[in-house]
């Protein structure tokens, strides 16, 4: 038996970053937006005694760590332990389309997909609230990959509130060469705040809030208004670590994108287009610009991790 789950990448249309907390995380006002660029994770029973084996396919498969730390393997182990099951014999395959270490929560998406796939494979019927709690244990962005759509994430990003959206938005993602480490980008954000003299702890920096104008633009499906409200407090840090991203942002804007920002902790750059044709043209111009390794036109919002199909092997 095998189960395949499709899971979306995310872009943060607002990423408000508060001060550094005592536990090493930052309080966020994080407006997550799920896009149709996604991975597929297949879970299948393994031979007895083989434990969890992980494989990956796709153009960037070589960059995906296939060790025990991979969030898909950790998710399977966590779900089994939660239900008091023994270490599973399980084959997990990731068909990777989300940029690796790109600021689009690709690893988190695979963790969410593995939770859903194993839950179906092992016929556990875990309540969604429990899956969301397990997801939050795995990482700050994992619960949103379960939920999908558009949501406001508070706390370290794991406390979610679904948001209303009035239409489909068209996006382009420019993939950079190599990834950026999320902790390193948060550290650079803190360093820049110290350098600017504002301080970086949660007593120095006000807790961020969602921008009401941005929420209204989403609710009304107004791409131009959303473009004007896009905001990412991690962008200066990502640009400081990777100055060439400024060229990518400029190339997409010159090609007609109505909004541009670094996606999450980067280095993927996200561009909002006025419609699907414009998104295709921006993607083509970005490919020709020489400022990125690949460019993908896509859209959203789309649902979170969902089972595509289950197959029974050998009758
Ligand atoms: O939760 P996750 O494991 O994805 O976070 C990775 C790292 O990103 C954390 O260890 C922390 O350094 C940083 N982070 C943060 N504040 C958040 C989320 C992540 O500082 N709200």
What does this structure look like?
The protein has 315 residues and is an alpha+beta fold. It has two domains: 163 residues, Ribosomal Protein S5, domain 2; 132 residues, Alpha-Beta Plaits (2-Layer Sandwich). Helix content is 34%, strand content 29%. It has ten helices and twelve strands. Strands 1, 2, 3, 4, 5, 6, 8 and 12 form an eight-stranded mixed sheet that branches. A four-stranded antiparallel sheet has the order 9-10-7-11, sandwiched between helices. Helix 1 packs parallel to helix 2, helix 5 crosses helix 8 and helix 9 crosses helix 10. It starts with a strand and ends with a strand. The model has no long low-confidence stretch (mean pLDDT 96). The structure holds cytidine-5'-monophosphate. The site of cytidine-5'-monophosphate has 12 residues, from strand 2 and helix 5. Cytidine-5'-monophosphate binds next to strand 2 and helix 5.
Q: Which small-molecule ligands are present, each listed once?
A: cytidine-5'-monophosphate
Which range best describes the helical content: under 10%, 10-25%, 25-40%, 40-55%, 55-70% or over 70%? 25-40%
Radius of gyration: 19 Å
Number of strands: 12
Q: What's the CATH architecture of the largest domain? A: 2-Layer Sandwich
Number of domains: 2
Beta-strand proportion: 25-35%
Overall pLDDT level: 96
Oligomerization state of this entry?
single chain
What is the chain-wise order of helices and strands? EEEHEHHHEEEHHHEHHEEHEE
Major sheet details? 8 strands, mixed
Shape: globular
């Amino acid at each position: 038996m095998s189960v395949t789950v499709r899971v979306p990448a995310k872009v943060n249309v607002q990423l408000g970053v508060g001060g550094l907390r005592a536990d090493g995380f930052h309080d966020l006002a994080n407006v997550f937006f799920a896009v149709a660029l996604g991975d597929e994770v297949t879970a299948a029973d393994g031979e007895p005694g083989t434990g969890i084996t992980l494989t990956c396919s796709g153009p960037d498969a070589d960059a995906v760590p296939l060790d025990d730390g991979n969030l898909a393997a950790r998710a399977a182990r966590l779900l089994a332990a939660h239900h008091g099951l023994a270490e599973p014999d399980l084959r997990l395959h990731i068909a990777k389309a989300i940029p690796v270490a790109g600021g689009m929560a690709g690893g988190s998406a695979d963790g969410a997909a593995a939770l859903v796939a194993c839950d179906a494979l092992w016929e556990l019927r875990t309540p969604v609230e429990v899956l969301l709690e397990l997801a939050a244990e795995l990482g700050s962005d994992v619960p949103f990959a379960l939920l999908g759509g558009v949501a406001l994430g508070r706390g370290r990003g794991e406390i979610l509130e679904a948001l209303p959206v009035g239409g489909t938005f068209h996006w382009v993602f420019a993939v950079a060469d190599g990834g950026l480490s999320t902790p390193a980008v948060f550290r650079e954000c803190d360093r820049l705040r110290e350098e600017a003299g504002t301080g970086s702890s949660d007593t120095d920096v006000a807790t961020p809030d969602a921008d009401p104008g941005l929420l209204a633009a989403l609710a009304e499906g107004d791409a131009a208004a959303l473009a004007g409200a896009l905001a990412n407090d991690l962008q200066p840090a990502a640009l400081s670590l990777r100055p060439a991203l400024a060229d990518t942002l400029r190339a997409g804007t010159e090609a007609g994108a109505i909004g541009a920002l670094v996606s999450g902790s980067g280095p993927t750059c996200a561009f909002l287009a006025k419609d699907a044709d414009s998104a295709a043209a921006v993607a083509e111009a970005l490919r020709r610009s020489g400022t990125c390794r690949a460019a993908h036109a896509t859209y959203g919002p789309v649902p979170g991790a969902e089972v595509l199909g289950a197959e029974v092997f050998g009758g």
